[in-house]
Amino acid sequence: MPHLEGLLLQAYLDGYCNDARIAEVESHIESCDECRQRLDVARRAATRASQLLGALEPGPVHAPPFEELQARAAARAAGGETTSAGGDEVDGDSMLGAATTERVVPFWRRPALAWAATVVMAFGVGWLSRTEFGLPADLKARAGPSFERLGDATEGSRVLPADADAAEVPTVGSPGSNPTGLRTQVLAEPESQRNIAVTDELDDVQAAKRSVSSEAAATPPPAPTAILDASDQRQAAANHAEADAASELRLAEGRTSADMPARESGVTVTGESALVGFNEQEEVAKTFADEGTVGRFVVVDRSAAELWLGVAPRELPGLPLLRVEVGPGVLFDNGIPGRPAVRLVYLASSGQEIALLQQYTGPLARRELAQVGQLEAGRDAGAGAARANRARAVEELRTDLLFAADRDAVVGGVLDLPATVREPDGRAAYTWLEDGYLLSISGAVDPDLLRGLADRIR
Amino acid sequence: MDLSEVYSEHYRSLVRFLYRRTGDQGLAEDFAQEAFVRAIEHQPEQPKAWLFQVAANLARDDHRRRAVRYRHLALVGNEVGSLTAGSVGGVRPDVAFERNESAARVRAALAELAPNDRDGLLLKEEGLSYDEIAEVLGLSRASVGTTLSRARNRLAAAYERLEAEGSRNDAAS
Questions:
Q1: C-beta atoms of B155 and A49 within 8 A
Q2: Burial class (CB in 10 A: 0-12, 13-18, 19+), B64
Q3: Looking at the complex, does the CB of residue B113 fall below 8 Å from at least one CB of chain A?
Q4: Which of A178, A257, A286, A326 is the most buried (most CB within 10 A)?
């Protein structure tokens, strides 16, 4: 008889099981000493925690009459005052707007939309990696300062070594060595899937579908330019040799099993399914949505990270890059909730993983992406509108996937001095703010080494 | 449920949550009232989870600002290396006073937990369901159990370590 899952025991203990589950647990523990003991251990831990927290009881609580609070709310509404008792930076209205409207149907309970967002991300990745944000040089020249800013920031990423493709391939299997202890989920993005035709009839993806098909028809292959990055070359290679894509996917699969605890293996991306076609990808996307992507980092293609962050991520030269992850800012200790975060994981010569966690603190590029779309719309009604749709879809993706976790978290004070912190688990982190990036480099290594690595980035 | 009923039923619970979170009862009451004032303004559909979420955000924001300020002070006064995890971990220096030693230890242990672990645990103590906790923390429901289990074990472990350190220090002095 298989033993009960830890999560099930925990849920039983916390009163979060339906009757069938309760019956399952109770009949099992009657005959299984081991599970009964596990349950006892968990129960003792829960009792102990409650007992400890019992030491923190407030004194007599002052409770003003409810009418007084109503009067305060009314006075506030009359005076047009924004709610800001939480602090000077709190914009209560925007925060609560998010809380009330988006709360009602959380992202992870909207599989259709989440699914669409995931699909859109696949397209966005393909689109963005075609050229520098997919824009021909002449358009970039006409785009004016708003795009230049984006372009300048993008330059930083071009220090990527020519063999970055190879460097992205994990060189060591390192199960459980996630340097920050955050949960990581793998979303492998096969190159050959980028421009796959969408056959589903979900309304949410109609715009994306149209944009893909019209672009495929209307846009000639991009002319080679000096700023083609590694992923373009990789895409070209993948288009010519499916075998290459297959081997890459096998690597991605290896990464999946290395990074994910067994009990979270609900999302699996196998080389085969990713090549077979969309139905499998749909399954992955659905599971992805069911599992909830909020509250964790996800392994992505490098160009997706740039899309996620809104600007090119800062990189750590000289070390092999193991993987690229994106996640919500709320997971960035001392970071800015509500802002996208990207984590690049490198391999130090000592064999430890070094994580470079970053957020962009400047004006988010969401608006700039939209502007790009509008510019294109002015240029060419067909393809331009498709781009505009896609830019909006990208925004939606970020709003849903990313900001779901952070939607009413508040941008508080940003750590504005370099600081070194040693975590209880022996991991050290060095955090600093530079050129609008909040950067934090961490690993189970000497803090001095981290500072040295930080100097390389500067 | 009418908000005034929610108020009479959950206001104290909210204050306790915030007190455990901030260590300052006056602040806890201010934040709890603020959360209710906002609830009156916005009439959320699920007021309980909503209130706790606003409260957690208020506390988090407050903590962030204090932590930054405190770190500045610490950096001015000390070498960077002397900042230990404990001093950065979130114990407010101006709330060092506790009614007894054990409470101070629990608070220090609580400060060592990851933010989501700590909040999850405190929300569970206030009787929130897995669904509500998932809602407040932006986690998937499936991960609430893991979060709680980890938080409980870490809280107890941190407490016991602090207790052992405390008795060693007593013996040394």
A1: yes
A2: buried
A3: no
A4: A326
Radius of gyration of chain A from its Cα atoms, rounded to whole angstroms: 24
* CA distance, residue A452 to nearest chain B CA (Å): 15
**Are B124 and B103 within 8 A, CB to CB?**
no
* Token representation of residue A207: 């715009």
Cβ–Cβ of B58/A294 closer than 8 Å?
no
Q: Collapsing DSSP states into helix, strand and coil, what is residue B147?
A: helix
Q: What is the pTM of this model?
A: 0.41
So what's the pLDDT on residue B123?
A: 95
Query: For residue A339, which of A421, A299, A399, A417 has the smallest C-alpha distance?
Result: A399
CA distance A62 to A312: 51
Pairing of strands A184-186, A297-300: parallel
E-only strand ranges, A72-130: none
Q: What's the rounded Cα separation, in Å, for the pair B63 and B77?
A: 21
- CA atoms of A2 and A448, how far apart (whole Å): 48
Closest CA to A398 of A437, A340, A357, A313: A340
Could you tell me if A337 and A306 are in contact, meaning their C-beta atoms sit under 8 angstroms apart?
A: no
Among candidates A260, A389, A369, which has minimal Cα distance to A325?
Answer: A260
Residue A316: which of A156, A108, A132 has the closest Cα? Answer: A156
In this prediction the ipTM stands at: 0.82
CB of B23 closer than 8 Å to CB of B16:
no
**Residue keyed to tokens 């202890």:** A181
Q: Which residue has the tokens 């779901």?
A: A404
DSSP category for residue A171 = S
What residues of chain A lie within 8 A of the CB of B22, using their CB?
A: none
Look up residue A249 and give its amino acid. Answer: L
Per residue in B65-92, pLDDT (tens digit) is: 766 655 554 444 333 333 333 333 344 4
The residues, any chain, with a CB within 8 Å of residue B105's CB and separated by 6 or more, are: B159, B162, B163, B166
Cα B109 to Cα A50, A79, A212, B155, B163: the distances in Å are 13, 43, 53, 6, 10
Tokens for A360? 């962009």
User: Shortest CA distance to A408 belongs to which of A113, A57, A91, A138?
Assistant: A91
The C-alpha atoms of residue A259 and residue A134 are separated, in whole angstroms, by: 32
> Helix B25-42 vs helix B47-77: angle between axes, to the nearest 10 degrees?
140
Q: What is the pLDDT of residues B16-53, one digit of tens each?
A: 999 999 888 888 999 999 999 999 999 998 899 999 99
Which of residues 65 through 104 in chain B touch A, CB cutoff 8 A?
Answer: 65, 67-69, 71-72, 75, 80-81, 83-85, 88, 100, 102-103
Strands of B2-73 (E only): list them: none
**A13, A21, A50, A52: best to mutate for the B interface, most B CBs within 10 A:** A52
What is d(CA B135, CA B129) in angstroms, rounded to the nearest whole number? 10
